[in-house]
Structures are given as C-alpha cells and as structure tokens.
Design goal:
Number of helices of chain A: 18
Order of helices and strands of chain B: HHHEHHHHHEHHHEHHHHHHHHHH
CATH topology of the largest domain in chain B: MetI-like fold
Radius of gyration of chain B: 33 Å
Oligomer: heterodimer
Structural class of chain B: mainly alpha
CATH class of the largest domain in chain A: Mainly Alpha
Strand content of chain B: under 5%
Number of domains of chain A: 2
Structural class of chain A: mainly alpha
CATH architecture of the largest domain in chain B: Orthogonal Bundle
Largest sheet of chain A: 2 strands, antiparallel
Largest sheet of chain B: 3 strands, antiparallel
Strand order of the largest sheet of chain B: 2-1-3
Distance between the termini of chain B: 61 Å
Number of strands of chain B: 3
Strand order of the largest sheet of chain A: 1-2
Shape of chain B: extended
Chain lengths: 486, 454
C-alpha cells in the first residue's frame, strides 16, 4: 500500500476517533450523572491526537530509515569479486536498485508471478535485454551475485512496505482504542491534550535545528568523503580548476574564490554608495510625495527573483558592456564578465543595503541631529559628521550582510559571470564563482562516487562557512555598538 | 545705553564689518552651501539610479518578452488522406497510431502547395519543399494528435491552424530580417517573401498565443512550440506542498517561541538557528535536498515533492519571522482577558490571539510563497532542469512525477542556442512576474482589509 493512501487512512481513523471519543464522553456523563472534567470536544481531540500523530510520525521515520537499512543489508550480500575493477560498491548498489525497480516493471509487463522470478537466473536468461524491453537500460551484463542481490533487495523492499503498513495501522488503531477506553468523566482530557499539543509545538520549532543539522551533516559528511579521494592541500592551495570526467582532475578552489570575491567586490562597489545615498536621501531630504513613489519602487527591486536579474545580465547588460565598452577599448570580447555579473548583482543589492541603512539611520536619536543643527551645521554636514559616524557600526553590519548575500548569490553569476575558472584582474573577462561550479558539478546525472561530484559539497561547505562567518560578524558588530544609543 | 558706543568704535576701525555682514555671503558660507547642494544632488542621483535600474530591468524583460504572447499561424485545408493514414481502411486506432509524424508531413506539404496555387502565389526559385518549411516541424505531431484523438476524421478535409516555423515567426517580431535571412541556413529571403504574400492573402496570421501557457517544453530546434504548461503545473504543485507544510509548521513554531518558550538554552538555540537559516544561501538548501531527500531518503529526482520540501525549509524562516511579529502585535490585554475569565493558556492562544494575528500570518505566508515561487538555484541541483515533456499526474501521485518549474524553465531556455528562446525566456519571466504581482497584491489587500491597529 502506498504512503499517500496510508496517510489518508490514518487521518480517517483520527477523524472517527474524534467523533466517537466525544460521543462516549457525553454518553458516560449522561449515564453516570457526573459532570465532565473538560469540554466534550477535548475528549474527542484527545482520541484523535493519539490515533493520528504517533502513527504518522512512525510512517515518516519508517520511510526515512527503511532505505538505509535495506541498503546496508543488501550491500553485504555483494562479494568484493562482483565489484568491477576500479569501480565502487556504491555504483554496484545503484545498479542493484535499478534492477530491482526494473524487475517490478518486468513482472507487470509480462504478468509473471513470484515463482517465475525465483527461477529466473542471471546466468541462464538474458536479464539485460529483458530489462531493456521495459525501459531499464543497464551499462553491462548482470553478474549472478548482483542479480541475486537485486532479488533480495526487491523482496526485502516488499516485506518492509507490508510491515510498515501493518505497524502503522496497528499503532493508529491501537492507540485510538486505548485512548477511547480511557475516556471517562473524570479524565483530565483538556490538560492531557494540551500537553500533547505543546509537545507538537516544540517539535515544530525544532525543525529549524533539524534543518541546520541536516545541512551541516550532509556537507561535512560528503566533504569528508571528498577528502578521502582528493588531497585537501590541493583543494585549498592549487590555482588550477580543471575537472575531467575520466579522472585526474585539478580541483583547486583558489580561482573560484577569487572570482567570487571579485564579483562581490564589484557588486558592493556599486551597491553600497548608491544604497547608502538612497537611504540618506529618502530619510533626510525627500518630501512625502517623493518618498511614497521612490520607496516602493526600490522595494520592488528587492522582490524580483534573482533569475530575472540573471536574464537581464545575459540579454541586456552583458551585450551592452561588450559592444560599447569592452570591444572598443580592446579589453575583451566576452559578454559574460565580472563587470556584468557585478553590476547586476549591485542592482540586486541596492534595496538590501538601502533598507538596512534606512533602519539604522532612523535609529540615530533625533537629539543628536538637533544638537548638530543647533551648532549651525548644515544638513549634509550633520549627516556626514554626526549621523554617519553614529550609524557606522550598523552600516558596516549592513555591508557585511550584503557581502554574504553577494557571495551566496547563484543565478546572476551563472548567467552573467561565465564558466572559465581563472585568476585575472581584467573585469571584462569571464570568471567563475563557487556557486557557479556547485551548479555545474551537481546538475544532470550525478554519481556520488567521484571527486568531481563530491567537490561540490566541499565548495558548499566553504560557502556555508563564509556566509555564516560574515553573518555572525555582522550581528556581533551591530549588537556590540548599537547599545550605546539605547 | 553704554553698549551703543562699542559698535560705533568698531565701525570706525575699517572694512571688517563688511566681511561679517549677514546680508552678503562670504566664500566660506558659499562653499558650505554648494557642498550641501552637491550632497543633495548626489542623493537624488542615487535614487534616480535605483529607479532607473528598475525601469531598465522591466523595460528589457518586457521588450524582449511581450512578443512571446503572439504567435504566427498558417491556416491550411488539410486533406486527411485515408490512403496514407489508414491503409487497411478499418479505422483501427492501433494501426493508425503506427503512422509516425513522417506520414503526416507530406499531407501538410500537399496542402501548402494547393493553398499557394489557389491563392495564385508563386515565388521564383522556391521549391515546394522549401515552401513547406515555413511550417513548424512540430505541426505534423500536432496533426497526428488531432487525428488520433478522433480517427473518424480521416478522409475529411479540415481547416487547420499550423504553427509557423520559428524563423517565420521571428520575421513578424523583428528578430529575422531579409538581410539576416541571407546568412541564415534555416531560412531564405524567398521564404520570407512567400510569408509576406501569404499574409496578404490572409492565410498567415499572428495572433494571441494560448499554447504558450498550456503546451509543454519543446526541443532545441522548435522554439515556436515551446510552452510553459509543465512548468506552471510543477510550480503550482510545489506551492501546494510549501503551503501545506510551511504554514502549520511555521505557525506552530512561532506560537511556541512567542507564547510558551521559557528563556533557556534550548530556546536560544532555536532562535539562533532560525536567524541563521534565513541567511543561508539558497543553493546550500539545494545541496541539502540532493544529499538528504534524493540520495539518502531515495525520493525521485525532478519531482515536485523534493522541490516542495526544499522550498518549505527555505520559506519557514520568513513565515516564522512574520508570524512572530503579528503575534507580538496582539496586545497583552487580549491574553489577560481570556485568562481572566478562566481560559487555559492554550485556549487563550488558540481561541483569541491566533485568530487576531491571522491576517498578518497570511500576509507573511503569501510573501514567503512569492519568494519560493521565484527561487531557482536549489531546484537546479535536485534535477528540475531535466527536459520534461510529460505533464505530471494528478496529486498526490503526481507530486512524485518529474516536472519543471517556472524559474527553472527560464534558466533552461537561456541555455539553448536559438535566439527565439530568449524571447520565450523573457515571456516566461513576465508570466512569473505577473504571478508575483498578483500574490503581493493579495497580501497588500489582506493587510489593508484586516490588519488592526491596537
């Protein structure tokens, strides 16, 4: 039985539980003449919660854990001799899973029974061509051990699913029945169900922790695998990035880091002065009509998806820079360049910088402005000599946050910066960034056994550490220096 | 009185008083004033640069993309020849299905010849073959689907609107000119002349392109047939999943943190994590999706369910932050009143505070959804870039079928060679932006309508 259907059944049981739980509470109270401890709906709610929540949790855990257990079991069935020279066990396991999936399709297409499958032998029948008939293409002929492992995988998978269906249903019905039996006028139904709900609330808020653990765990785990295959010092200190799918790649991160920093620097160079001036002008100078028009316009920029900026870089800014500046000046002939990506990313960051700076400038106490005006300073002198120094920590924090945004930005650089990894100073040359390479190494069919794929996780971890570091630093600076005005 | 003598004595001492007069501006003041004006101008310049950037961005997308909502069609009377399509003559659908699109192409070519003859159009040096190339390579497939849908049409002569090829379509959108056709291998100036004459005869027309919204993606050589159907459906499925998961989880988490959480290490840990997740680059969520949902849990690639899960995790911080703000905005007097008449803490929150905070929560949710709708990078990593022509099935099973998504479709089209795909990509962006504007408008209306100031 598939999981979606099972969920519907559990929800149905839970709904019935609500109805019967409530009815039983009312009936018992009427029969014994005692008042219910809680409102009748709480008795129904209690039965419904017990019927639904544990069973659904079990289902989710099962769906998550079963593949791991199966993988471990079946993997041990394959002897080392069945693993081709230079190949990896995980590749063979991927074949096993594909064959197991193909067997189901094969049995359905030909109306075979379990007994016929048992008799099917890899050394007797041509499994490869039979599977190809049902749309499962295999790279080579199937060794006997692999085929037996696939059969074992398939039957274990079926058994697991049956066991899952049974245990989920038993848990749901069993708990519903137990809760139903316990319903009585004395039962403190409201308190119990409120405790239950509270634990659900706590569970929901730990999703954030689980996500972080998931991100960090998967990044660290796969990065560790990567460093098992590829020396760490080459990754960190080599200046050559040249992945080869036949092996023997150079995977040095330095050119990618350089591209990332160069593009981000160009972006900040545009975004910070413009964003800051916009914030200053709108909060200190602009009249209300100007503000009511310009502020939403700038905020719209913040709501535009990055793919739109990417397309803008690709079809407008890139060709414009190439045809009007780079080629006449003889600086390059590529439409994707550091300047293209940086300029467009700068536009993306303008609203980010300006809204953060706006908050910070508004947080500077009015008394400081008044004091400065009282001494005879002009408005711009007040801004430059009083407000900006006072807001400096906040502005620095905003710039750091913008920098972390720029480093992690993907679509603009994918479409605007190019794919050539090099260490160069010319902003009209195409360069590449960490995020571009994560996309190019992980897009398409990926096998998790080659350093060329796993390097993306090491890149991801680097990116994660950089952005996290910048964010923490930004928060630290803002918190530490903001206190003096509050 | 005695003071009066002092100015009189300084006035007599020379020109110093002229310099310090309030009525004439000295150089120092002039410099300060002009610096003030400069600074002000700089600010104005920055604001106009920002607004200009927005206008430039929109102008570029709209000027490139609006034409994708128009499409050129050629109307031909096609004789569905029974001798070609159904040799046995028994209208057996299985036999008819065996005739591939190659069997339909000659019908179209013949219809084209007849139409040209009937309208009296002839171009020197243009073969019948080349004339038929005005029609998209997708057209035979379309005709085949039409016949298979109702085999009894075989033998009839039906008027049929066929897609014009990408280059002819581009000619009427200004992308292809006579000069560029000279150099183009895929189209010749004679073909363009023919197209012009067909247009005069009313056979060829350019009209609104409904199939852009409904058709699936098409191959590299047939930009004229590419549509957004699968992508829109895939995005809709993902938004459903995001809404169904992130709204309850986000609201539950915010209620706990805002109303129940004690101040301790655990609560701090959650708070730090939420703040951190809001700042993690989106592509890292893609890596998480690939490693955990696809590689570890074995969910299928390119499936809306994986995209939905990844986007849910990305949307959660947005929803949590918005929900907490609107819970915080409900005044404590509401809680106190509920507690005062004997409600439990849980009842006061669920019966009184939460309903009052609902408009704010919904606004935040819609804005979070709008963000998720435009997100591209994580979806690239979980295989949504695959070329998908089949519509995903009905939910819930359809959540596991391969699909595309709007922003990913845009990326996909930018990677293709034919310049006609740039137009399609910009058109897709316009569709995406229209959805975003609609969602934001709903959020604004909700806020205006239901938000209460306490």
């Amino acid at each position: 039985m598939n999981a979606g259907f099972l969920i519907l059944i559990v929800l149905g049981v839970s709904a019935l539980g609500y109805f019967f739980g409530r009815r039983r509470a009312l009936a018992l109270s009427a029969a014994s003449g005692r008042r219910l401890h809680s409102l009748p709906t709480y008795y129904g709610q209690l039965v419904a919660l017990f019927a639904g929540v544990p069973a659904l949790l079990l289902l989710l855990t099962w769906l998550f854990v079963q593949p791991i257990v199966l993988h471990g079991q079946v993997s041990s069935l394959i002897p080392d001799s069945a693993i081709p020279e230079g190949g990896a066990r995980s590749l063979v396991m991927a074949d096993v899973e594909r064959i197991a999936g193909g067997l189901d399709a094969l049995m359905q297409a030909r109306g075979l029974g379990e007994a016929e499958l048992d008799r099917m032998r890899a050394d007797m029948t041509d499994i490869r061509s039979r599977l190809a008939d049902v749309g499962v293409a295999l790279g080579s002929n199937v060794p006997v051990e692999v085929f037996e492992a696939a059969k074992a995988y398939r039957s274990a998978h079926r058994n697991g699913e049956m066991l899952m269906t049974a245990s989920v249903l038993i848990l749901s019905l069993g708990l519903a029945f137990l809760a139903y039996r316990r319903v009585s006028p004395e039962l403190r139904a409201r308190n119990t169900s409120e405790t239950f709900v509270l634990s659900l609330l706590i569970g929901s808020s730990s999703v954030a922790i689980l996500t972080t653990v998931g991100i960090f765990g998967s990044l660290v785990f796969e990065t560790y695998n990567f460093f098992q295959m590829y020396p760490a010092e080459d990754f960190f200190f080599s200046t050559v990035w040249n992945p080869q799918f036949r092996g023997g790649s150079d995977l040095g991160i330095l050119p990618l880091l350089w591209g990332t920093f160069y593009v981000s620097l160009v972006a900040l160079f545009f975004a910070v002065p413009i964003g800051l001036m916009i914030a200053i002008y709108l909060s200190e100078y602009a009249g209300s009509t100007m503000r009511s028009f310009a502020k939403p316009a700038i905020e719209i920029l913040a709501g535009i998806p990055t793919i739109v900026y990417g397309l803008f870089a690709l079809i407008t800014v890139g060709p414009f820079l190439r045809d009007w500046i780079a080629q006449p000046a003889g600086l390059g002939s590529s439409s994707s360049s550091v300047l293209t990506a940086g300029l467009v990313m700068g536009i993306m960051l303008i609203p980010f910088v300006s809204s953060l700076s706006d908050d910070i400038i508004n947080a500077v106490p009015q008394a400081m402005r008044d004091g400065s005006y009282g001494l005879g300073a002009t408005q711009s002198e007040t801004i430059k000599q009083v407000i900006l120094p006072a807001a400096l920590p906040g502005v620095v924090g905003a710039i750091l946050l913008a920098a972390s945004r720029a480093i992690g930005e993907t679509m603009i650089v994918v479409l605007g910066a190019g794919a050539a990894a090099k260490l160069d100073l010319n902003p009209f040359e195409a360069m590449t960034t960490v995020t571009v390479k994560i996309v190019s190494q992980l897009t398409g069919d990926t096998e998790f056994a080659s350093p060329e794929t796993l390097v993306a996780f090491a890149l991801g971890l680097t990116l994660f550490v950089f952005t996290l570091g910048l964010n923490v630093l930004a928060l630290y600076i803002v918190r530490k220096y903001r206190e003096q005005y509050e | 009185m005695t003071d009066a003598t002092i100015p009189a004595s300084t006035a007599g001492s020379g020109s110093a008083s002229a310099r310090s007069s309030l009525l004439t501006v000295d150089t120092h003041t002039r410099r300060r004033r002009s610096s003030e004006a400069r600074f002000r101008l700089l600010g104005l310049l920055a604001v106009s640069l920002g607004v200009l950037a927005l206008l430039g961005l929109l102008a570029s997308i709209f000027s490139n993309g609006l034409s994708s909502f128009q499409q050129t069609y050629i109307r031909l009377d096609i004789h569905l020849d029974a001798a070609r399509l159904d040799k046995a003559g028994d209208r057996n659908p299985e036999q008819i299905a065996k005739v591939s699109t190659f069997g339909y192409a000659p019908l179209i070519q013949k219809a084209m010849e007849e139409k040209m003859a009937a309208a009296g159009i002839a171009i020197d040096g243009l073969s019948a073959n080349a004339a038929a190339e005005l029609i998209s390579k997708e057209a035979p497939a379309e005709l085949r689907r039409y016949v298979l849908a109702d085999p009894s049409r075989i033998g009839q002569t039906v008027p049929f609107d066929l897609l014009a090829s990408g280059r002819i379509d581009g000619y009427y959108k200004g992308r292809v000119t006579m000069a560029s056709a000279e150099l183009d291998r895929n189209v010749s100036p004679q073909q363009l002349q023919l197209a012009d004459q067909l247009k005069e005869a009313g056979i060829l027309e350019t009209r609104f392109n409904w199939s852009f919204f409904t058709a699936p993606d098409a191959s590299d050589t047939r930009p004229e047939a590419a549509g957004l159907g699968v992508a829109i459906l895939g995005s809709a499925y993902m938004m459903l999943i995001v809404l169904a998961l992130s709204l309850p989880i986000g609201v539950a988490a915010s209620i706990y943190l805002e109303e129940f959480a004690p101040r301790n290490r655990f609560t701090d840990l959650i708070e730090v994590n939420i703040a951190n997740l809001a700042a993690v680059p989106s592509i890292v969520f893609g890596i998480l999706g690939l490693a955990v949902f696809i590689n570890f849990a074995g969910l299928p690639q390119s499936a809306p369910v994986v995209g939905g899960l990844v986007l849910t995790l990305m949307t959660l911080p947005t929803i949590i932050i918005a929900t907490r703000a609107s819970l915080k905005a409900v005044p404590p007097s509401i809680r106190d009143a509920a507690l005062g008449v004997g409600a439990s803490k849980m009842q006061s929150v669920f019966h009184h505070v939460l309903p009052l905070a609902m408009p704010g929560i919904l606004t935040g949710t819609i804005i979070g959804l709008a963000q998720a709708l435009g997100e591209t990078a994580p979806l690239l990593l979980i295989g949504m870039v695959a070329f998908v022509r089949e519509y995903p099935g009905e939910p819930p099973a359809g959540f596991f079928d391969p699909a595309s998504a709007l922003p990913v479709q845009v990326y996909n089209w930018t990677q293709r060679g034919d310049p006609a795909f740039v137009e399609r990509a910009s058109g897709a962006i316009i569709v995406l932006l229209v959805f975003l504007v609609l969602m934001n408008l709903i959020a604004i209306v909700l806020r205006r309508r239901f938000e209460r100031r306490w």
